[in-house]
Design goal:
Chains A, B: Keywords: Methyltransferase, S-adenosyl-L-methionine, Transferase. Two copies of one chain form a homodimer. With 158 residues, the first copy, chain A, is mainly β. Chain A is built from two helices and nine strands, in the order ββαβββββββα. Chain A has a domain of 98 residues: YaeB-like (Elongation Factor Tu (Ef-tu), domain 3), CATH 2.40.30. Helix content of chain A is 6%, strand content 30%. Chain A has a six-stranded antiparallel barrel with strand order 2-3-8-7-4-9. In chain A, strands 1-5-6 form a three-stranded antiparallel sheet, with no helix packed on it.
Protein backbone atom coordinates (compact mmCIF):
# COMPACT_ATOMS: atom_id res chain seq x y z
CA UNK A 1 0.00 0.00 0.00
CA UNK A 2 2.88 2.37 0.83
CA UNK A 3 4.87 3.81 -2.04
CA UNK A 4 7.99 1.71 -2.78
CA UNK A 5 11.30 2.78 -1.25
CA UNK A 6 14.00 4.44 -3.37
CA UNK A 7 17.68 3.49 -2.94
CA UNK A 8 19.07 4.67 0.39
CA UNK A 9 15.73 5.41 1.99
CA UNK A 10 15.41 4.34 5.64
CA UNK A 11 12.22 3.28 7.41
CA UNK A 12 11.64 3.50 11.16
CA UNK A 13 11.23 -0.14 12.14
CA UNK A 14 8.55 -1.38 14.45
CA UNK A 15 6.63 1.87 14.76
CA UNK A 16 3.40 1.51 16.70
CA UNK A 17 0.24 3.03 15.24
CA UNK A 18 0.03 6.78 15.90
CA UNK A 19 -1.77 7.28 19.22
CA UNK A 20 -1.80 11.07 19.57
CA UNK A 21 -4.78 13.45 19.33
CA UNK A 22 -7.18 13.07 16.44
CA UNK A 23 -7.40 15.83 13.87
CA UNK A 24 -10.66 17.44 12.87
CA UNK A 25 -11.07 17.95 9.11
CA UNK A 26 -12.52 21.47 8.78
CA UNK A 27 -13.00 21.60 5.02
CA UNK A 28 -11.40 20.87 1.67
CA UNK A 29 -8.93 22.54 -0.66
CA UNK A 30 -10.04 22.77 -4.28
CA UNK A 31 -7.27 22.81 -6.86
CA UNK A 32 -6.52 22.04 -10.52
CA UNK A 33 -4.28 19.16 -9.50
CA UNK A 34 -4.60 15.41 -9.25
CA UNK A 35 -2.30 12.41 -8.86
CA UNK A 36 -0.79 12.74 -12.34
CA UNK A 37 -0.04 16.44 -12.54
CA UNK A 38 0.36 17.89 -9.03
CA UNK A 39 3.34 20.25 -8.81
CA UNK A 40 6.13 19.25 -6.40
CA UNK A 41 5.88 22.46 -4.38
CA UNK A 42 3.96 25.71 -4.07
CA UNK A 43 6.59 27.63 -6.04
CA UNK A 44 6.00 25.43 -9.08
CA UNK A 45 2.24 25.53 -8.53
CA UNK A 46 2.33 29.32 -8.45
CA UNK A 47 4.44 29.48 -11.60
CA UNK A 48 1.90 27.23 -13.35
CA UNK A 49 -1.03 29.42 -12.34
CA UNK A 50 -2.40 26.97 -9.84
CA UNK A 51 -5.05 29.13 -8.21
CA UNK A 52 -7.16 27.32 -5.63
CA UNK A 53 -10.03 27.63 -3.25
CA UNK A 54 -10.81 26.76 0.35
CA UNK A 55 -14.25 25.32 1.08
CA UNK A 56 -14.95 25.12 4.79
CA UNK A 57 -17.40 22.81 6.44
CA UNK A 58 -20.40 25.17 6.99
CA UNK A 59 -19.99 24.83 10.76
CA UNK A 60 -16.67 26.67 10.61
CA UNK A 61 -17.62 29.41 8.12
CA UNK A 62 -18.09 32.10 10.84
CA UNK A 63 -14.50 31.55 11.99
CA UNK A 64 -13.28 33.27 8.76
CA UNK A 65 -14.57 36.63 9.96
CA UNK A 66 -11.76 39.13 10.40
CA UNK A 67 -9.67 37.90 7.46
CA UNK A 68 -9.37 40.19 4.42
CA UNK A 69 -8.73 39.86 0.70
CA UNK A 70 -5.04 40.44 -0.02
CA UNK A 71 -3.91 39.10 3.36
CA UNK A 72 -1.41 36.20 3.52
CA UNK A 73 -2.52 33.12 5.46
CA UNK A 74 -0.87 29.85 6.40
CA UNK A 75 -2.81 26.74 5.41
CA UNK A 76 -2.30 23.37 7.09
CA UNK A 77 -3.62 20.36 5.20
CA UNK A 78 -3.47 16.59 5.43
CA UNK A 79 -1.58 14.67 2.74
CA UNK A 80 -3.26 11.34 3.26
CA UNK A 81 -1.38 9.40 0.61
CA UNK A 82 2.05 9.96 2.14
CA UNK A 83 4.25 7.51 4.07
CA UNK A 84 4.64 8.22 7.80
CA UNK A 85 7.58 5.94 8.53
CA UNK A 86 10.52 7.39 6.57
CA UNK A 87 13.61 8.62 8.46
CA UNK A 88 15.80 9.25 5.40
CA UNK A 89 14.54 10.02 1.94
CA UNK A 90 15.86 10.30 -1.55
CA UNK A 91 13.73 12.89 -3.31
CA UNK A 92 14.05 12.97 -7.07
CA UNK A 93 15.54 16.49 -7.14
CA UNK A 94 18.26 15.84 -4.51
CA UNK A 95 21.56 13.95 -4.89
CA UNK A 96 21.78 11.20 -2.26
CA UNK A 97 19.53 11.03 0.80
CA UNK A 98 18.52 13.42 3.53
CA UNK A 99 16.77 13.20 6.91
CA UNK A 100 13.00 13.66 6.74
CA UNK A 101 13.05 16.82 8.88
CA UNK A 102 15.55 18.46 6.50
CA UNK A 103 13.18 18.35 3.52
CA UNK A 104 9.59 19.40 2.77
CA UNK A 105 8.47 16.00 1.46
CA UNK A 106 4.89 15.00 2.35
CA UNK A 107 6.39 11.75 3.68
CA UNK A 108 6.87 12.53 7.40
CA UNK A 109 5.60 11.25 10.75
CA UNK A 110 2.59 13.57 10.48
CA UNK A 111 1.55 14.17 6.87
CA UNK A 112 0.83 17.87 7.33
CA UNK A 113 1.34 20.18 4.35
CA UNK A 114 2.07 23.84 5.05
CA UNK A 115 1.90 26.75 2.61
CA UNK A 116 1.64 30.51 2.84
CA UNK A 117 -0.84 31.83 0.28
CA UNK A 118 -2.61 35.09 -0.40
CA UNK A 119 -6.40 35.47 -0.07
CA UNK A 120 -7.86 36.47 -3.46
CA UNK A 121 -11.55 36.40 -2.51
CA UNK A 122 -13.54 35.79 0.63
CA UNK A 123 -17.16 34.86 1.35
CA UNK A 124 -17.57 34.37 5.08
CA UNK A 125 -21.26 33.43 4.82
CA UNK A 126 -20.47 30.69 2.30
CA UNK A 127 -17.30 29.62 4.12
CA UNK A 128 -15.18 29.96 0.98
CA UNK A 129 -11.93 31.71 0.22
CA UNK A 130 -9.99 32.04 -3.03
CA UNK A 131 -6.20 31.59 -2.77
CA UNK A 132 -3.47 32.59 -5.20
CA UNK A 133 -1.95 29.11 -5.50
CA UNK A 134 -1.79 25.70 -3.85
CA UNK A 135 0.27 22.55 -4.34
CA UNK A 136 -2.06 19.71 -3.34
CA UNK A 137 -4.67 17.50 -4.99
CA UNK A 138 -8.20 18.71 -5.44
CA UNK A 139 -10.20 17.67 -2.36
CA UNK A 140 -7.29 17.64 0.10
CA UNK A 141 -8.54 17.81 3.73
CA UNK A 142 -7.92 21.16 5.41
CA UNK A 143 -6.95 21.28 9.08
CA UNK A 144 -6.15 24.93 9.85
CA UNK A 145 -6.03 28.50 8.56
CA UNK A 146 -3.82 31.00 10.41
CA UNK A 147 -3.08 34.62 9.59
CA UNK A 148 0.57 34.93 8.50
CA UNK A 149 2.34 37.17 11.00
CA UNK A 150 5.89 38.40 10.69
CA UNK A 151 6.85 37.78 14.33
CA UNK A 152 5.99 34.07 14.15
CA UNK A 153 6.54 33.18 10.50
CA UNK A 154 9.59 35.12 9.39
CA UNK A 155 13.00 33.72 10.46
CA UNK A 156 14.43 35.73 13.35
CA UNK A 157 17.52 37.86 12.83
CA UNK A 158 20.76 36.04 13.56
CA UNK B 1 -12.88 21.37 31.94
CA UNK B 2 -12.72 23.87 29.06
CA UNK B 3 -11.63 27.43 29.83
CA UNK B 4 -14.64 29.68 30.49
CA UNK B 5 -15.96 31.83 27.63
CA UNK B 6 -15.29 35.58 27.49
CA UNK B 7 -18.03 38.01 26.45
CA UNK B 8 -18.92 37.68 22.77
CA UNK B 9 -17.18 34.36 22.23
CA UNK B 10 -19.09 31.86 20.09
CA UNK B 11 -18.93 28.09 20.35
CA UNK B 12 -19.71 25.66 17.51
CA UNK B 13 -22.72 23.79 18.85
CA UNK B 14 -23.13 20.06 18.60
CA UNK B 15 -19.69 19.28 17.27
CA UNK B 16 -18.98 15.56 17.02
CA UNK B 17 -15.69 14.26 18.39
CA UNK B 18 -12.82 14.79 15.94
CA UNK B 19 -12.62 11.72 13.70
CA UNK B 20 -9.71 12.57 11.40
CA UNK B 21 -6.22 11.00 11.33
CA UNK B 22 -4.34 10.52 14.57
CA UNK B 23 -1.18 12.50 15.16
CA UNK B 24 2.08 10.89 16.17
CA UNK B 25 3.94 12.71 18.93
CA UNK B 26 7.59 12.73 17.79
CA UNK B 27 9.18 14.40 20.81
CA UNK B 28 8.91 17.26 23.27
CA UNK B 29 9.78 20.94 23.34
CA UNK B 30 11.72 22.07 26.40
CA UNK B 31 11.23 25.66 27.47
CA UNK B 32 11.46 27.99 30.45
CA UNK B 33 7.68 28.44 30.46
CA UNK B 34 4.78 27.00 32.41
CA UNK B 35 1.11 27.80 32.93
CA UNK B 36 1.78 30.95 34.93
CA UNK B 37 4.42 32.68 32.86
CA UNK B 38 4.20 31.51 29.25
CA UNK B 39 4.49 34.44 26.79
CA UNK B 40 1.50 35.07 24.54
CA UNK B 41 3.50 34.69 21.34
CA UNK B 42 6.94 33.93 19.99
CA UNK B 43 7.81 37.63 19.62
CA UNK B 44 7.37 38.15 23.34
CA UNK B 45 9.17 34.89 24.13
CA UNK B 46 12.11 35.97 21.99
CA UNK B 47 12.23 39.38 23.66
CA UNK B 48 12.31 37.67 27.07
CA UNK B 49 15.19 35.43 26.07
CA UNK B 50 13.08 32.30 25.92
CA UNK B 51 15.59 29.93 24.38
CA UNK B 52 14.38 26.37 24.07
CA UNK B 53 15.26 22.88 22.99
CA UNK B 54 13.75 20.10 20.93
CA UNK B 55 14.10 16.55 22.29
CA UNK B 56 13.07 13.95 19.75
CA UNK B 57 11.90 10.46 20.52
CA UNK B 58 15.12 8.45 19.82
CA UNK B 59 13.38 6.66 16.94
CA UNK B 60 13.24 9.89 14.97
CA UNK B 61 16.72 11.23 15.75
CA UNK B 62 18.19 10.16 12.36
CA UNK B 63 15.56 12.26 10.57
CA UNK B 64 17.38 15.44 11.75
CA UNK B 65 20.32 14.71 9.46
CA UNK B 66 20.74 17.42 6.83
CA UNK B 67 19.69 20.31 9.06
CA UNK B 68 22.36 22.82 10.09
CA UNK B 69 23.01 25.23 12.95
CA UNK B 70 21.84 28.71 11.98
CA UNK B 71 19.11 27.44 9.68
CA UNK B 72 15.49 28.51 10.28
CA UNK B 73 12.95 25.74 10.79
CA UNK B 74 9.20 25.64 11.26
CA UNK B 75 8.01 23.75 14.35
CA UNK B 76 4.51 22.31 14.68
CA UNK B 77 3.41 21.43 18.20
CA UNK B 78 0.26 20.37 19.98
CA UNK B 79 -1.31 22.77 22.47
CA UNK B 80 -3.31 20.23 24.40
CA UNK B 81 -4.91 22.61 26.87
CA UNK B 82 -6.71 24.68 24.24
CA UNK B 83 -10.43 24.69 23.32
CA UNK B 84 -11.28 23.20 19.93
CA UNK B 85 -14.85 24.50 19.61
CA UNK B 86 -14.51 28.32 19.37
CA UNK B 87 -15.72 30.09 16.21
CA UNK B 88 -15.29 33.65 17.53
CA UNK B 89 -12.90 34.74 20.21
CA UNK B 90 -12.16 37.73 22.34
CA UNK B 91 -8.43 37.70 23.02
CA UNK B 92 -7.28 40.01 25.79
CA UNK B 93 -5.20 42.20 23.45
CA UNK B 94 -7.97 42.79 20.86
CA UNK B 95 -11.03 45.08 21.07
CA UNK B 96 -14.19 43.07 20.43
CA UNK B 97 -14.22 39.60 18.90
CA UNK B 98 -12.73 38.00 15.86
CA UNK B 99 -13.15 34.75 13.92
CA UNK B 100 -10.83 31.95 15.06
CA UNK B 101 -9.04 31.73 11.67
CA UNK B 102 -8.20 35.46 11.81
CA UNK B 103 -6.09 35.12 14.98
CA UNK B 104 -3.20 32.97 16.18
CA UNK B 105 -4.89 31.83 19.40
CA UNK B 106 -4.18 28.22 20.44
CA UNK B 107 -7.97 27.80 20.64
CA UNK B 108 -8.83 26.41 17.18
CA UNK B 109 -10.34 23.24 15.69
CA UNK B 110 -6.89 21.65 15.66
CA UNK B 111 -4.69 22.91 18.49
CA UNK B 112 -1.54 23.13 16.40
CA UNK B 113 1.03 25.78 17.29
CA UNK B 114 3.36 27.02 14.57
CA UNK B 115 6.56 29.01 14.94
CA UNK B 116 9.63 29.72 12.84
CA UNK B 117 12.78 29.50 14.94
CA UNK B 118 16.50 29.35 14.31
CA UNK B 119 18.60 26.27 15.12
CA UNK B 120 21.26 27.21 17.69
CA UNK B 121 22.76 23.75 18.23
CA UNK B 122 22.23 20.30 16.79
CA UNK B 123 23.07 16.78 17.94
CA UNK B 124 21.67 14.30 15.44
CA UNK B 125 22.85 11.24 17.38
CA UNK B 126 21.11 12.45 20.54
CA UNK B 127 18.07 13.71 18.64
CA UNK B 128 18.31 17.18 20.19
CA UNK B 129 18.30 20.67 18.75
CA UNK B 130 18.66 24.05 20.46
CA UNK B 131 16.31 26.78 19.22
CA UNK B 132 16.56 30.54 19.67
CA UNK B 133 13.12 30.93 21.26
CA UNK B 134 9.77 29.22 21.75
CA UNK B 135 6.38 30.25 23.14
CA UNK B 136 4.97 27.06 24.64
CA UNK B 137 5.07 25.24 27.98
CA UNK B 138 7.97 23.00 28.85
CA UNK B 139 7.11 19.46 27.70
CA UNK B 140 4.80 20.48 24.82
CA UNK B 141 4.35 17.59 22.36
CA UNK B 142 6.14 18.12 19.04
CA UNK B 143 4.52 16.96 15.80
CA UNK B 144 6.77 18.21 12.99
CA UNK B 145 9.99 20.00 12.04
CA UNK B 146 10.26 21.46 8.53
CA UNK B 147 13.05 23.50 6.98
CA UNK B 148 11.82 27.06 6.44
CA UNK B 149 11.87 27.76 2.70
CA UNK B 150 11.16 31.10 1.11
CA UNK B 151 8.97 29.76 -1.68
CA UNK B 152 6.51 28.13 0.71
CA UNK B 153 6.73 30.27 3.84
CA UNK B 154 7.11 33.84 2.63
CA UNK B 155 3.92 35.58 1.44
CA UNK B 156 3.84 35.73 -2.37
CA UNK B 157 4.15 39.09 -4.14
CA UNK B 158 0.80 40.75 -4.82
Amino acid sequence: MDAPLRPGEVVADGLAEPDGPRLRIIGRIRSRWGAGDCPRNIGTARAQGGVGKVELDPTFAPALDGLAVGQPVVLLYWLGGARRDLLRQSPRHIQGTRGTFAIRSPNRPNSIGLATVRITSLDVAAGTMGIDAIDCYDGTPLIDIKPWVERADLPPAR
